[in-house]
Design brief:
With 198 residues, this protein is mainly α. The chain is built from ten helices and no strands. It has a single domain, classed as Four Helix Bundle (Hemerythrin (Met), subunit A).
Length: 198
């Protein structure tokens, strides 16, 4: 059962990690952009931050999960370090951009607070993991990384929860989005806390 869970998580991380590349072919009427106002879409800073969030965020999803395979870390420590650096840089860029666009989240204050909190936790946990590995505290580094990747994985859980919530609210995106702004990451943190306690 555990193997099935991790295999499914890896497949989803790869699929959602590659998903931002679809925005090369999307119009403003497609995907998440279709939920934004014309005024916001015309905001060049917001648009830059949006792409600075989704592309490095996808890269973080792709480079994060192999770091938890202990045999791979042992056999390929140089790859672990290289991917770790790519992961940290990706999170810092995506997290800062996400912090900015969080203030413009659809759904008002509830959505905005949820996504801003996620960005802050993502940045804080990743920097915590980075500081611990610089001090060669491997156990603490791993604990911080579990929380960091749980925040990264919010990109996956958001896309799992959102269709269900939209269906529950009979197609009302504006009603679903404030809920998913919290639901995409709070349960992830609970699971991460459980894994760390183990």
């Amino acid at each position: 059962m555990k193997g099935i869970f991790w295999t499914l998580a890896i497949i989803l991380a790869i699929l959602i990690g590659l998903y931002p590349s679809a925005y090369f072919f999307m119009r403003d009427s497609d995907g998440l952009l279709s939920t934004k106002t014309p005024e916001l879409l015309a905001n060049k800073l917001w648009r830059f931050a949006f792409y600075a969030h989704i592309f490095p965020g996808g890269l973080a999803l792709l480079t994060g999960w192999p770091q938890f395979i202990s045999s791979w870390r042992t056999l390929k420590p140089h790859w672990h370090r290289t991917l770790g650096k790519i992961y940290v840089i990706s999170v810092l860029v995506s997290g800062l951009a996400g912090l900015y666009i969080g203030f413009y989240a659809t759904g008002g204050l509830v959505s905005q607070t949820g996504f801003i909190a996620l960005a802050l936790i993502w940045l804080f946990s990743t920097l915590g993991a980075f500081r611990k590995i610089r001090k060669r505290n491997f156990a603490a580094h791993e604990r911080w990384m579990i929380f960091s990747y749980a925040a990264t994985f919010a990109a996956v859980t958001l896309r799992l929860w959102l269709p269900m919530l939209i269906a529950f609210f009979e197609g009302d995106f504006d009603a679903a989005y404030p809920i998913v702004a919290w639901l995409c990451w709070v349960p992830n943190m609970v699971v991460a806390g459980w894994l760390v306690r183990r």
